[in-house]
């Protein structure tokens, strides 16, 4: 049983060490037991202290935060979970900041350890906030792991990786357990140490599998049919409900994440939604070097949905995700009805994105053909009115022509499209893609290393019939990167169209990169005009024509 802090409400009496023109500084001493309430009190005081306030954690200290003490907030977050999977969208937020201006949370090298499935931090309606210099880990990471130590066709012996916990019921069913969570069915991913890659795989502990404990942390599994296990393989397992996020940056601007050591990111990544000007600088998203773990993320690492301004990710390290490392996109909403000459009833279509507003007064929108993905300016938003969790009534500042709803039309908020720079980063042990990007403002991906990414290292899509992640790109430079044995194509551009009436994307330049190939093609681009692919160095096993570009 955890200990609750005895400092509680009196902690503020001894915290204010200096009060300068820049604001108030709060030094937080080490806290024994549950530090959630103490940290929240200090953050609240610092927000109230005005611009320039700083919260400083104690160097070398460890602060434990618990789901049961966190701040509950009902929040709808892009790309997380469906209403069917998780009707309750309450986020349990350990460190909650609202309306902060010029605030800095300086970890000073301290460590924050989560207990239970929670949202570690959330920033809402904040400006010029910096979070820096702390390590984040979980006492009960919701992606537990084990290593196969012996393998036979219908039997394996495994060693459970600390701090993963489990139980075996009377009917020999194996369950992973944590503080407030428990599962057996779910998704598995395998790390192959000899090949230095991870790959999605069948769950090895599903119902019907007989589990017997052979010793502390050692379990034998027995199967009714042959299984392709091999000694040395490391299995990472999780349930599939993205009920929390690691961090949530909502309707905020000028947010910087600097020097963070994120050793476990659950149950989704850091999501920036309807925000602008986000910087990720010198962050490490990977298991601790001495942890024995190989997984650091429940799904994506960084997700940017409906953002604007400029996004910069630099000098950062990404290893051990369960989905994409970086995803930058907007959201297509399907047009369901045209009630008046100036209004549209629109709907979220993918069940993992819903409940949040995507339109603000003054935003420009396009009406997009869902088959061709070609759009046409429709007007500026005068009002966005929520009808239910899925539908909005968007009223524009001018009349629009009759919309062909039966053929299929969607809307994109073209104001909510950021520019993006990704430089000096390293991507490895990602099962899907390194960077997904669909934004029409300038994109620069330069001087990065993509190491054995099994799908395209960089992927540009755009669709209005599947994930509904928008939109076209207009200015993309991929230069000076190194791609080591990634999937084919290494760089893929494939808008999801079923009618070709013209280029969806334009202005893509792939120049001066190094491709070390393990097969297939380096670059495959379709549905795009204005493509330049030149000056790249290609080695290894590849097709005779390593570039495929065309309309």
Would you write up a description of this structure?
- It is built from 1 helix and 51 strands.
- It is an all-beta fold.
- The protein folds into 4 domains: 8-141 and 243-319, Pectate Lyase C-like; 145-238, Thrombin, subunit H; 331-413, Beta Barrel (Thrombin, subunit H), CATH 2.40.10; 435-549, no CATH class.
- The protein has a 22-stranded mixed beta sheet that branches. Strands 5, 6, 8, 20, 23, 26, 29, 38, 41, 42, 45, 48 and 51 form a 13-stranded mixed beta sheet that branches. Strands 16-15-19-10-11-18-17 form a 7-stranded antiparallel beta sheet, with no helix packed on it.
- A hairpin with a 4-residue loop joins strand 15 (187-192) and strand 16 (197-201).
- The radius of gyration is 24 Å and the shape is globular.
- Mean pLDDT is 94; it is low at 1-11.
Brief sketch in words of this structure:
This protein is mainly beta and 551 residues long. It has one helix and 51 strands.
Average pLDDT confidence is 94
> Helix/strand-derived class?
mainly beta
CATH topology of the largest domain: Pectate Lyase C-like
Question: Class of the largest domain, according to the CATH hierarchy?
Answer: Mainly Beta
Extended strand count: 51
Low-confidence segments, ≥5 residues, pLDDT <50? 1-11
- Return Rg in Å: 24 Å
Our count of domains comes out at: 4
Under the CATH scheme, which architecture of the largest domain would be assigned?
3 Solenoid
What portion of residues is helical? under 10%
Outline type? globular
Q: Please report the number of helical segments.
A: 1
Distance between the termini: 62 Å
Largest sheet: 22 strands, mixed
